[in-house]
Design a protein that fits this description.
With about 210 residues, the chain is of the alpha+beta class. The chain has four helices and eight strands; from the N terminus they run E-E-H-H-E-E-E-H-E-H-E-E. It has an eight-stranded mixed sheet, sandwiched between helices. One of its GO terms (biological process) is mitotic sister chromatid cohesion.
C-alpha cells in the first residue's frame, strides 16, 4: 500500500521585472506499509523506544514476527517512521482485534501515516469477516489520540483505573469501534464511559497514536 503526498511551498520571487512571479516548490513524499521481518525487527524496537513511554519485552517482539498482516511498518521515502501492531482476542464468544501499538515519529506526523495504518487495520478486519470490533487503550490525557480515533468512529466505553504502572496519569480509556451491523446496516452503538469502569489490566501493552492528519 503506497501513497504519494505532495508538499507545496509558495514563495514570491521579487525579481527586477515589473510583475512578481510565484514560484511553486513541490516536494514528493511517498508513504507506504511494509512487512515486519527478522531483518527489520531492530528498527521496530528503536522506533517503539522513541515513540512510546514504555518498554516492550523480547516475547512481545518474538510474537510479532508471526503476526503477518497484523503488524506493519510505515515508511516515508523508504525510512521506517511508524508501525502498527495488533492481535486478535477470543473472549466471551467474541472475536475482537486489539491495537497494541500504533505510532509515528514526531517529525513525520501530519503526513497521513496514522490514517494509512488504521485503514490497513480496517481492511484486515474486512478480510477476516468475523471480527466483532476493534479496541485499544489510550492514556486519559492523550487528547491527540482520542481525537484521532473518534474521527474514525471509536467511542470511549470504559475507564481502566491505574492501567499504567509507571505513567502519570495512570488511567486509560478503553476505546472501541463496533463492526457489527444493525438491521438498518448501521454500526451498533457502544456503551458510554459511565456505564463501565474496569480495573487495570497490566498484561495488555500500551496503545496510543501520536500522528495527526
Amino acid at each position: 500500500m503506497t501513497n504519494t503526498v505532495m508538499m507545496n511551498n509558495n514563495n514570491i520571487n521579487n525579481s527586477e521585472s515589473k510583475e512578481n512571479r510565484t514560484k511553486r516548490t513541490v516536494k514528493r513524499v511517498t508513504i507506504e506499509l511494509g512487512d515486519l521481518t527478522q531483518h527489520n525487527l531492530k528498527q521496530l524496537k528503536v522506533l517503539n523506544r522513541d515513540v512510546f513511554p514504555v518498554a516492550y519485552n523480547e516475547k512481545f517482539y518474538k510474537d510479532l514476527l508471526g503476526a503477518g498482516e497484523l503488524c506493519k511498518l510505515a515508511y516515508c521515502n523508504d525510512i521506517v517512521v511508524g508501525a502498527v501492531c495488533c492481535r486478535i482476542d477470543l473472549t466471551d464468544n467474541r472475536r475482537r482485534l486489539y491495537i497494541m501499538t500504533l505510532g509515528v515519529l514526531g517529525k513525520y506526523r501530519e503526513l497521513g501515516l496514522g490514517t494509512l495504518m488504521l485503514e490497513h487495520v480496517f481492511k484486515v478486519c474486512e478480510r477476516e469477516g468475523n471480527i466483532d470490533s476493534i479496541y485499544l487503550h489510550v492514556q486519559v490525557n492523550n487528547e491527540t489520540a482520542l481525537s484521532f480515533y473518534k474521527k474514525f468512529g471509536f467511542q470511549i466505553i470504559s475507564t481502566a483505573v491505574e492501567y499504567y504502572r509507571r505513567l502519570e496519569p495512570s488511567d486509560a480509556y478503553l476505546l472501541e469501534r463496533s463492526l457489527k451491523k444493525t438491521p438498518s446496516n448501521e454500526q451498533t452503538s457502544s456503551p458510554t464511559a459511565t456505564q463501565q469502569n474496569s480495573k487495570k489490566v497490566p498484561s495488555v501493552p500500551l496503545s496510543t497514536i501520536t500522528d495527526v492528519d
